[in-house]
Amino acid sequence: MTKFKKIVSGTLAGCLMASALMMSAGAANVQTYIPSGTAQAAAQNTAQTRTAVKINPQSADIYAEGVPAAFPSEDGKTVYTALSYNGSTYMPLRTVGRWMGKNISWDSASRTVFLSGTTEKSYPCADDDAYHKEGVKYVGATGTATLDKGVKVLVDGKQQTFKNQKGQTIYPLFYRNSIYLPLRNIGELTGMDVTWYSAKAENDVNAIFLRMPLSDSKRAEMETYATNLMKQLLDMRTDTQKFENCESAVKNGSYTDYVITDKAAAMAALDSIKRKAQTIRSGMTEQANPIRYYNSSLMNELDFLINNADTVMDRVKNGRVVVGSSNPNASVVDQTAVMFGADDTMLDCERMVRMLRQNMDRLF
């Protein structure tokens, strides 16, 4: 079934195998300054502070300002994942700069990362089609990384000390040509609250939510908006289920097609979906983070239903509409008609409420 978005998880990291002193601009994902000085002495000092450590993929879904987080390279041709080491989650430096709205540079002489100046903040989205094109490289988090106690991180000239939740000092990692910094500390430096949600059921998932603080009144206002939408969409969903129930299995040679056979009921359901979608859409307004992303998706999905309902009704009335098939040739399926039985709007509304409540509980 064609969806408006691809929900994907995991985006992927990398490990520095060469000396930090010899790290290239591409390896660090930052601009590199070539120093003068005694390379041999510096290399000896470097070796004393570097330790190979076992790392694992991050087991939680990560949301930054309501957006499912992605960790792309600067050119978008490589997508990394967050990784886990010793109970802490780490994220690639390139995305640190984007979240913080800072320029990034690396001085190999002092082995210092600089985050400075002001650029537009952005939150790369895992659902972005740009990260799912042919040729995009995905880098997983397995094996070993290099923990380096000698690397300094300066934000606007102020050196940062990173600590885990136990108050213990933790250090940057190098993994597959990228520097990694602790996600919780970066969220806090950016001014975001950081909340960890632990899975509570078999089909539940862990999640990390990072968002700018919301006042109680603003959060209540957004939740009222989202839960009212949920009620209206649940009502519209009864019609999408009626539309789905109008199909029957029909043999087509060696394949089985699922064809709309109860045409009168299907057209009535489509007409009702269109009218309810129009009512819901007219009451929707632009929203701020952390629900902006899902609210915009909902608007697009409702516009799709409104704009295509008459066309699908005409095809149901005058033709043969296939909404599923065992035929591997996907072109036999009317993908536009499929969307009228899909749960996309409900899923996005559920995610909207999850972003506000900072949990992964299912709502419908």
Describe the structure.
With 364 residues, this protein is α+β, with helices and mostly antiparallel strands. 39% of the residues are buried.
At a glance:
The protein is an alpha+beta fold.
Strands, count: 24
- The helix count comes to 9
Average pLDDT confidence is 88
* Spatial ordering of strands, largest sheet: 2-13-18-19-9-8-3
Percent range for helical residues?
Answer: 25-40%
Shape: elongated
The N- to C-terminal Cα distance equals 20 Å
Structure keywords:
364 residues, five-stranded mixed β-sheet, 9 helices
Helix-strand layout with pairing:
Layout: H1 25-28, E1 31-33, H2 39-49, E2 50-54, E3 56-57, E4 60-64, E5 67-68, E6 71-72, E7 78-80, E8 83-85, E9 88-92, H3 93-100, E10 103-107, E11 112-116, E12 137-138, E13 144-148, E14 152-155, E15 158-159, E16 162-163, E17 169-170, E18 173-175, E19 178-182, H4 183-190, E20 193-197, E21 206-211, H5 216-244, E22 247-252, E23 255-260, H6 263-282, H7 292-318, E24 322-325, H8 335-338, H9 344-357
Parallel strand pairs: 1-10, 4-21, 7-12, 11-14
Antiparallel strand pairs: 2-13, 3-8, 4-5, 6-7, 8-9, 9-19, 10-11, 13-18, 14-15, 16-17, 18-19, 20-21, 22-23, 23-24
